[in-house]
Design brief:
By secondary structure, the protein is α+β, with helices and mostly antiparallel strands. It has one domain (about 15-65). It has three helices and three strands; from the N terminus they run E-H-H-E-E-H. The chain has helices at about 15-25, 25-35, 55-65, and strands at about 15, 45, 50. The chain has a three-stranded antiparallel β-sheet with strand order 1-3-2. Helix 1 (about 15-25) packs across helix 2 (about 25-35). The radius of gyration is 11 Å and the shape is globular. It starts with 12 loop residues before the first strand and ends with a helix.
């Protein structure tokens, strides 16, 4: 598997664009997952949606299983 480079903030947060890159999805797809209540857990901070890197890894592990 190729290595994917994403920007992770010091507290482990990842913005939607980087989260989508990590998951191999388009940012709009990730937004739609949130709207439908599926996909990785996210939190809204300052009007923007963020994902914890650990939550993204858990989501990938759950999808792959």
């Amino acid at each position: 598997m190729d290595e994917v480079r994403v920007m992770v903030l010091p507290d482990g947060r990842v913005d939607r664009i980087n989260a989508a890159r990590f998951l191999g999805l388009a940012p709009k797809t990730l937004a739609e997952y949130h709207r439908l209540g599926k996909g990785p857990a996210s939190r809204k901070v300052g009007g923007r949606r963020f994902y914890q890197l650990d939550d993204l890894k858990a989501f990938v592990a759950g999808v792959a299983a």
